[in-house]
């Protein structure tokens, strides 16, 4: 198996994006032309059969989401979630910066498949320069007849605009993102109806991650067979990952599902930086689990991760060497979640504050056995009672630290309390 491939990411740093010409020369918009030549239902079946799951973290089947949206009457808003507010996750910015037209094309295909006239790309405020790149790409696409009225002479009329939020991690959650677009604070809302029926401005809405739209464009291109030949029987295709931390060659890589974590870290990443020893990896972003050395040969696939109660998440792989303390890492992660909790629900708001206090005690070598039980009790409440995914996932680092690095935590307990 090849350690990395270049299919969905084949245009990264290979084409100029200030005009649309380079994108057209490498086969850009051939996927949209193909889509317009077949029925919308055929596109949805194609996406379903590909096994594509949402690439933003939730991993909901994309084809099923599109099918639900296609059955709703009225025009559907096509949303692209480019918030990317999770630490150690930076693969979506590569699409925005180096292949924006692929995303515009994917959103346009989605509009044709489910019935939409207006698209919105939600880009976090911190991506100021990249936001301007996307705005110019949209203008170029419109000038070339690939956006606007009667696209490519068809009955499809679709346009896209860019909206920015204030940089809140919670806006990665679809309903919080919608609240932000509507001009309110980014807080998750109660879903009385599915987003496909009542989302943005209470209208039918389809929301996908940037990478998901990029894959859809690939599925209708000449690269489709090459893409589908990658991966496993369940996790088909490839995943764009953000590799960072104490590795020699951090960066964005496209990997076939089924590759092992060891291959990602040591073959693609060049091993641990400065000849140090591996301590742990965090997969899936700040809300992801800690992976010990004994589990490095786990296959990077939805099914293999699920067996271990892990999650592919956003596609981040953060590597830490033996100079890092588990307890200090717990503090860093819980500071993030305590800060990013919107405060709407008590389990998340108060739970993260208490977890942070406990993490500090371990970092100061003042932990107690009772703190282990407190972490488990708090995590249980947060996972079962939090309003949204932020609260349910926030304790993951501390829970997996107990499971896989208990001896490290024990070393940070008050000696006479052990």
Q: In which range does the helix fraction lie? A: 40-55%
Q: How many β-strand stretches?
A: 9
Write the CATH fold name of the largest domain.
Rossmann fold
Average pLDDT, rounded to a whole number, is 95
Please, how many helices?
A: 18
Distance between the termini: 47 Å
Q: Spatial order of the strands in the main sheet?
A: 6-5-9-7-8
SSE order, as H and E?
A: HHHHEHHEHEHEHHEEHEEHEHHHHHH
The CATH H-level homologous superfamily of the largest domain: NADH-ubiquinone oxidoreductase 51kDa subunit
* CATH architectural designation of the largest domain: 3-Layer(aba) Sandwich
Q: Which structural category do the helix and sheet elements fall into?
A: alpha/beta
Overall number of domains: 3
* Molecular shape: globular
How much beta, percentage-wise?
5-15%
């Amino acid at each position: 198996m090849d350690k990395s491939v270049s299919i969905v990411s084949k245009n990264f740093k290979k084409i100029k994006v200030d005009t649309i010409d380079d994108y057209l020369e490498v086969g850009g918009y051939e996927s949209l032309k193909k889509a317009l030549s077949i029925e919308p239902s055929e596109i949805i079946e194609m996406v379903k059969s590909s096994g594509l799951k949402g690439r933003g973290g939730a991993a909901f089947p994309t084809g099923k989401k599109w099918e639900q949206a296609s059955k709703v009457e009225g025009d559907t808003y096509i949303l692209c979630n480019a918030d990317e507010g999770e630490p150690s996750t930076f693969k979506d910015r590569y699409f925005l910066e180096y292949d924006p037209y692929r995303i515009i094309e994917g959103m346009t295909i989605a509009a044709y498949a489910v019935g939409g006239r207006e698209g919105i790309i939600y880009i976090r405020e911190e991506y100021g320069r990249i936001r301007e790149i996307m705005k110019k790409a949209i203008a170029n696409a419109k000038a070339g007849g690939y956006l606007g009225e009667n696209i490519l002479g068809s009955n499809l009329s679709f346009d896209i605009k860019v909206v920015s939020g204030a940089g809140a991690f919670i806006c990665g959650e679809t309903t919080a993102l919608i609240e932000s677009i509507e001009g309110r604070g980014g807080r998750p809302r109660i879903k009385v109806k599915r987003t496909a029926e009542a989302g943005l401005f209470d209208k039918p809405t389809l929301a996908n991650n940037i990478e998901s739209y990029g894959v859809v464009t690939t599925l209708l291109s000449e690269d489709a067979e090459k893409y589908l030949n990658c991966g496993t029987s369940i996790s088909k295709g490839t995943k764009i990952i953000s590799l960072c931390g104490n590795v020699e060659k951090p960066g964005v890589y496209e990997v076939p599902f089924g590759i092992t974590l060891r291959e990602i870290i040591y073959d693609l990443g060049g091993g641990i930086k400065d000849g140090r020893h591996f301590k742990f990896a965090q997969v899936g972003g700040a809300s992801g689990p800690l992976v010990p050395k004994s589990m490095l040969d786990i296959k990077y696939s939805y099914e293999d991760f699920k067996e271990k109660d892990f999650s592919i998440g956003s596609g981040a792989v953060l590597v830490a060497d033996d100079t890092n303390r588990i307890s200090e890492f717990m503090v860093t992660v819980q500071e993030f979640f305590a800060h990013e909790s919107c405060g709407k629900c008590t389990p998340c708001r108060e739970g993260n504050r208490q977890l942070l206090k406990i993490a500090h005690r371990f970092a100061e070598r003042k932990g107690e056995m009772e703190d282990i039980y407190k972490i488990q009790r708090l995590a249980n409440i947060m996972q079962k009672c939090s309003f949204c995914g932020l609260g349910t996932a926030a304790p993951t680092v501390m829970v997996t630290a107990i499971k896989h690095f208990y001896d490290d935590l024990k070393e940070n307990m008050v000696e006479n309390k052990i």
